[in-house]
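Dear colleagues,

As part of the handover before I leave the project, I'm documenting each prediction I ran so the next person doesn't have to rerun anything. This entry is a single chain, and its sequence is reproduced below.
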Amino acid sequence: NWVIAALGATLYLGYLLLPLGKIFTARFGAAKCQALCWILRNLASLCVAFTALFYYWGLQGLGIFTLLTGAFAFYGFRGAGVIMSTPLMGAVTTSEDMPKTLAVNSGVFYVFSMLTMLGIYFVLGFGSNVWVLAGIMVAGAICGLLSSRLIASVDEPAALRNSARKSLIPQLHGIVRDAGILRLIMANATVNMAVIMIAPISMLALK
């Protein structure tokens, strides 16, 4: 039972890797940062899929460790990768095109997410054992690794990399002095803390 709760918590513990997005962008650029994080994310997904082999071999302890570590890395590298998505979108579009581009991008994302979920539902209709679940993760990881090549090919201005190299301290000082932004941050922090405390236990309750 504790594994189910811990697995739900990895979604939020992964936020600890968000600073890697800034570090990678400063070194490689926003597009290559996202591509690198996508590669690492999907390799983490393959690690989770290997849990099925450890389960088959009777190595329960190693399987749990691989499952939780892979899930943490999966969510962590996702956060580190998408942190520069909006700035990258703004850099490769004009101010007139950006709202339309964001809307189309979100629409395509949700449409394909729905189609993928329907596909997974159809596959699970034939069997829902651990090998089928592992196969779904492997197929998703392969698609993710292929997509990283497309992301890495995006041409971006040097301004994004230069911006990521700047220290956050002066910006944090400005945020602390702005009462409106500070209230917004505190409100979001309160809501997120509530979700973080409820979500892992909710997964355990559903089980």
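The radius of gyration is 19 Å. Residues 146 and 185 are 36 Å apart (CA to CA).

All the best with the project,
I.
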